[in-house]
Amino acid sequence: MKTNSNARLAERTSAKGALGLGLLAATNTQTHVHEGIMNKFKVPALGIVLAMLVLTGCVEEEASVLVVGNERPGNTCELTANQAGPFLSRGVMDISLTKRYVMAPVLLNQLGNSKDVRLATQSGDPMLDDTQIEGNTIILDGANVSFTTNVPALELALQSDLFIPVGGTVFPSSTAAIGLEVISEALGRQIENTTLFDQRGTLVTILVNVTFTGRSTAGRDIESTEFSFPLDICSGCLLNYPPGTLFPDDDGSQTCDVTKDPNNTGTANSSFESVCIYGQDEAVDCRLCRSAVGDPTDADDVCDP
To answer: What is the CA angle 65-112-121, rounded to 5?
Structure first.
């Protein structure tokens, strides 16, 4: 039963486990994957504060870090940072289910191995005074994010460019997948407050433009290529109603509330698929929606047709 209580509906759709923002990360010898959405990479400590002296030629001026795509998580919600994908060609954010959107850009360090940095110390230890490190490893420090839209109602909410701190390491000739929350809850609520999405079925498209910044271990400032990603923002477009999950409500409308099953067959209690990040890019079973929202009255507003 609809109660039109969206104005008081709190953000209660942060589901447990796989419903949250945590993406499982996997690593191999050629790939370093960001563990968790906002966790920092830990760079191995050198143990001594050292001055770095560049011994060989300059790094090319062209962008040394290429953003190759926005990775689609696998069946286990892992990020592999595979240069070949799979990638999302566009994203979907259902504003009725979530106020956040998280990307997983895959970065390629196009610089090859080059042990061109010598560490100068005053220890007097010849082993330390002649130590060389890889100069083309890139340590990320953040991402510049801007938005492009031709929807006047969204221009005010999306007018400000963002700098989002990130942590990550991209080794020479290797890749890294970085979890990046490009739309925060605060920004998502600004988008929702435009009233564009008061009616179920509304969909608008924006472009999310991302550029990563950082520094090489040789001490050079690094900026990646710009990556533009189309993002569809909608209301209710990701909700899915499998057969046997809708029942007549008290007012004659349809509901996904299992307690309204007149035959008490238990069909609606059968298992349903979870998602990697609730409310984005994947269809959300209406039973999962009701479980995530919790309150039956709020769930009627959010999860029912």
So the answer is: 100
pLDDT, one tens digit per residue, over 184-228 is 999 999 999 988 888 888 899 999 999 999 999 888 999 999 999
**Tell me, what amino acid is at 292?**
A
| Continuous segment of H or E residues that includes residue 230 | strand 227-234
In angstroms, rounded to a whole number, what is the distance separating the alpha carbons of residues 77 and 60?
Answer: 36
Span 226-255, pLDDT tens digits: 999 999 999 999 999 988 888 888 887 888
CA dihedral 237, 203, 69, 58 (to 10 degrees): -150
Kindly state the helix (H) or strand (E) to which residue 92 belongs, with its residue range: strand 91-94
Give the Cα separation of 130 and 121 in Å (integer).
9
On the question of pLDDT at 287 being above 80, the answer is yes
Phi/psi class of residue 252: alpha, beta or left (left: φ > 0; alpha: ψ in -120 to 50)? left
Phi, psi of 7 (to 5 degrees): -65, -30
Work out whether the CA dihedral 65, 165, 21, 102 comes out positive or negative.
negative
Question: Is 208 within 8 Å of 147 (Cβ atoms)?
Answer: yes
Cα gap 145→183, rounded to integer Å:
10
Residues facing residue 24 across a β-bridge: 78
